[in-house]
DUF309 domain-containing protein (Sulfuricurvum kujiense), 120 residues
Amino acid sequence: MATEPTGITESCEAFVLSISEGRYYDAHEDLEPLWYPRRFEDNNEVRLWKGFINAAVSFELAKRGRKEASAKAWQTYLKYFSLLENLVTPHKELYVKIAKLLEKKHGMLCASAALSRTQR
């Protein structure tokens, strides 16, 4: 991440770019400054950010071959993803875009992991 994003849109756009480029650790770091100061708020949007961070962690763990830990982090993402349906926010369209990207990336990583297991 070259410059520090200042808002929700900027942080989320940086997250999308990092995920798209397979830089999952960086994706986690893109949202951390947004989520961390607000992590104790009773706010579903903040919880959704935590879910997105967990998806990035899941992908990074999968990349490192830590299948069980990756699956656990993905389950945490799914728990928070369910909040998106009823979330009222001006950023909902962006969050839906992120969720679609995460689902696609998860499918690719799972297919890749299954393929590598069958090639042993």
Notes: Residues 1-5, 114-120 have pLDDT under 50 and may be disordered. The helical segments are 8-20, 24-35, 44-63, 67-81, 92-118. The domain at 8-118 is CATH 1.10.3450 (Hyaluronidase domain-like). Residues 92-118 form the longest helix (27 residues).
